[in-house]
Amino acid sequence: MSLAILLILLALWTQGALTIFLLFILGRRRLPLVADKKIAVRDIALDTSPWPEDAQKASNAFNNQFQLPVLFAIGIAITLYLGAGWPEVVLAWAFVGSRIVHATIHVTSNHVYRRFSAYVVGFCILIALWIAILVRLVLAFQTV
Length: 144
Hints:
Blueprint: H1 3-35, H2 41-44, H3 53-64, H4 68-82, H5 86-107, H6 112-143
Helix pairs in contact: 1-3, 1-4, 1-5, 3-5, 4-5, 4-6, 5-6
């Protein structure tokens, strides 16, 4: 396995670890409220509004990991199939970094403009990754 492929897989692993970490934060914020009967299960069965702000922030941060990161994972799979290169390594780690910043803002201050800025940075990096994939696909068709 090349170093580039290893680093891309580590970026993908880190994105997954971020998601799992956010789930632990979510559980830590929600479970004590239910256990202490501060939140009734029937009140949150279909509606998340009864949760306090900290629990909602963690929930939203966790849910966000199933938006852009899904396209990231698909892009990584295609990149690995085509033969990962250093541009993809840089883009993968930049994307994961942007997601860590986004999630950190989400579960702490939740400053909307900063969070949105981190989201846009990640989105632009993701677009760049998909363009790099397209270039590799076009080059692959030229050699066929």
